[in-house]
Write a structure and sequence with these properties.
Helix content is 31%, strand content 14%. The protein is of the alpha+beta class and 370 residues long. The chain folds into 2 domains: 245 residues, DD-peptidase/beta-lactamase superfamily (Beta-lactamase, 3-Layer(aba) Sandwich); 107 residues, no CATH class. It has a 7-stranded antiparallel β-sheet, sandwiched between helices. A 3-stranded antiparallel β-sheet has the order 4-6-5. The radius of gyration is 19 Å and the shape is globular.
């Protein structure tokens, strides 16, 4: 496996500019890693720890497609989950609410009408009441008429998976994904003994705290004050025990490639090729974003895919500074992992431009080798 000098130069430049302290990238083609490297420091304080290609990152919202989307797709394939069935048929909490007609497909494509985010740790009496709070949250638009990226939708899907299977998501992920794929560096709630191999995030949840204060959300006394390092960054996922349908997954670039390959026809060990075709199918035709099951399509205006990926490529980003894009035409996977929240004053840097540049340089590097 080689490094790509132009990508290294780009990432080193952005580290020097203060966008993020570390970056690990991996570019795969036809199931195999082609280019990979690590730049910068995964931890700056309380001690300096250089990033390596084996550094584990909090993947944040990559949990949505890589775990929840994959598990849901397996159930769709088996017939145990029907995309156009109302979620209230699976979750009784939604019956009789304004959200009772929301479909599974609308949840998976972020077109269900749910708001983007709510501090559930402030609104629910305990983790067991979260579903009730979401089901009774006022919809912000008529389901199916817009795409509004929503954590609440994927938290709901995670709980739906648990209800259908009678198992916790962490068990489902372990038995249906991690073990069959032999993913030894992919976890929810990694053990503290592994901390020095994990990229650090911010001190406390300053971003969420500021968001709540600006929204006048009220008093909350359980904010984390310490450096978030080896513990899930997302506040709602932390409230839910570190494991949720929208966030909580930790992994390396190499293990993330194995997960990403599960969405490619002919490469997937967990899904049929016909099921994989769904991931590059636009299910929100005519709306403000092109979305498939759990993924955004590159056809979306201003997506982080950039100009070099075909329009049927699909991808996702994570708040902590992670991203994964998949080009099914050429069987290519583009993974960029950073920890942009670590020791960075608010607001955190928007790195979408870096992601687009990364994809352009990555395609160029692949073309030069072909």
């Amino acid at each position: 496996m080689s490094t790509a000098p132009q990508i290294n130069a780009l990432l080193a430049e952005r580290i020097s500019a203060g966008d993020f302290p570390s970056a690990v990238y991996l570019i795969g083609q036809k199931g195999q890693p082609i280019f990979s490297d690590a730049i910068g420091d995964a931890v700056v304080q309380p001690q300096k720890i250089p990033a390596t290609v084996n550094t584990i990152y909090d993947l944040a919202s990559l949990t949505k497609p890589l775990i929840t989307g994959l598990l849901c797709s397996r159930l769709v394939e088996s017939g145990d989950l029907v995309l156009d069935k109302p979620v209230s048929k699976y979750l009784e909490e939604f019956e009789g609410t304004g959200a009772q007609l929301i479909t599974v497909r609308q949840l998976l494509t972020h077109s269900a009408g749910l708001p983007a985010w709510r501090p559930l740790y402030m609104l629910a009496a305990g983790p067991e009441r979260v579903l009730e709070v979401i089901a009774n949250t006022d919809l912000e638009y008529e389901p199916g008429t817009r795409v509004v990226y929503s954590d609440l939708g994927f938290i709901t899907l995670g709980l739906l998976l648990e209800r259908l299977s009678g198992k916790k998501i962490i068990e489902l992920a372990q038995t249906e994904i991690f073990q069959p794929l032999n993913l030894s560096q992919t976890f929810f709630n990694p053990e503290m003994a592994m901390q020095t191999g994990i990229a650090a995030c911010e001190v406390g949840n300053a971003h969420e705290r500021e968001t709540c204060e600006k929204a006048g959300a009220g008093e909350y006394t359980n904010w984390r004050q310490e450096l978030i390092w080896g513990q899930v960054h997302d506040g709602n996922a932390f409230f839910l025990g570190g494991v949720a349908g929208h966030a909580g997954l930790f992994s390396t670039a190499a293990n993330t490639l194995v997960l990403a390959n599960q969405f490619l026809p002919g490469r997937s060990q967990l899904l049929k090729s016909t099921t994989c075709e769904l991931f590059c199918t636009n299910m929100t035709e005519g709306l403000n974003e092109a979305r498939s099951i759990a993924w955004q399509l590159a056809a979306t205006k201003d997506s982080t895919a950039g100009p070099s990926l075909p329009s049927d490529s699909f991808g996702h980003t994570g708040f902590t500074g992670t991203s994964c894009w998949i080009d099914p035409q050429h069987e290519r996977v583009f993974i960029l992992l950073t920890n942009r929240t670590h020791l960075h004053a608010l607001p955190f840097t928007n790195i979408n431009g870096v992601r687009r540049q990364f994809h352009t340089l990555a395609v160029d590097a692949l073309e030069e080798t072909s």
